Amino acid sequence: MTQTKQTTQNGTQATDRSLTLVIGGNGKTGRKVAEKLTAQGRPVRVGSRSGTPAFDWTEPTTWLPALEGVDRVYVTYYPDLSFPGAPEQVGAFAEAAVAAGARRLVLLSGRGEEAAQLSEEKLKASGADWTVVRASWFNQNFDESFFLESVLAGVIALPTADGVEAFVDTDDIADVVVAALTDDRHIGRTYELSGPRLMSLADVAAELSQATGREIAYVPVSDQAYRAELREHGLPEDLAELFTLIQDGRNAHLVHGVEEVLGRRPRDFADFAREAAATGVWDVPSA
Predict the structure, then answer these.
(1) Which of 8-26 are b and which e, b meaning 16 or more Cβ less than 10 Å from the residue's Cβ?
(2) Helices vs. strands in the chain: H and E counts, helices first
């Protein structure tokens, strides 16, 4: 493997042309992590079912081929770390990764998710040089799948009541993850990330209305009604439990992981909304 000198964030020189496996490398954060590493001249392997070699969380036989020659891994788990069986799979993968020579593991975890912390502990127990990055709701949930159809329809109907969340941008997450993958100072650290302000879904709808120039409304619905909608679309009802993170206020405060790692403020939702609107992703044909 060719090696060249790279400059770390603290200005010291380090030899590092390591191959990084980015699990979920086509996803919201993984895609950007892969792009940012590639822009730095660092080799990347995308870990996905369509990757070469393929990676599938439900097929452990795919893990070792994906780990061949890999030195470090960005670990994202699908569908969510709070789902049953996640800690066991994450723990087994972490042990396999360390045994294969990939000691640096950076895990994307959930802020305020007690169930996700079980997976964190399993990963730490593997003996890896670990970093945990905790985030919750992404700005990009509104322009990349998930809530995109709701924004296009002009109605965001979710079971969040008047709860607030500090929505965080995936570019900020990716920048923190890249720092954790490439700078030894982040080994053994847990970072919690948020945006710069708390927002209700009504606030989100107002920002989206401003950015798109058309009315987008937030309509609170009951948990039961939302579960029925998930069933209708063939989605797991467990997804409704994620909204507890907003409903019960556990994340109704700002945290400062972005500033701590990157030395700058996180991106505001209004900036995200304005830039996303300019791409045309929320354009609706005139009647």
Answers:
(1) eeeeeeeebebbbbbbbbe
(2) 11, 12
Distance CA 238, CA 83 (A): 8
* Tokens representing residue 241 in the block: 């439990």
Closest among 250, 251, 109 to 166, alpha carbons compared: 251
DSSP state letters, 98-146: HHTT--EEEEEEETT-HHHHHHHHHHHTTT-EEEEEEE--BGGGGTSST
Query: Quick check: 277 and 191 in contact, CB under 8 A?
Result: no
How buried is residue 2: exposed, middle or buried, by Cβ count under 10 Å (0-12/13-18/19+)?
A: exposed
Cα separation of 237 and 241, whole Å? 8
Q: How many CA atoms lie within 13 A of 118 on its CB side?
A: 13
- Inter-residue contact 158 to 201 (CB < 8 Å): yes
Instruction: Calculate the CA dihedral of residues 202, 208, 212, 214 and round it to 10 degrees.
Output: -10
Q: What is the DSSP letter of 284?
A: -
The candidate with the shortest Cα–Cα distance to 111, out of 36, 195, 203, 226, is 195
pLDDT tens digit sequence for 25-69: 999 999 999 999 999 999 999 999 999 999 999 999 999 999 999
Write down the pLDDT at residue 11. 38
**DSSP assigned state of 53:** S
Q: Are the beta carbons of 136 and 165 closer than 8 angstroms?
A: yes
Average pLDDT, the chain: 92
CA quadruple 178, 77, 110, 153: dihedral sign: positive
Angle at which helix 269-278 crosses helix 201-212, to 10 degrees, equals: 40
d(CA 54, CA 51): 4
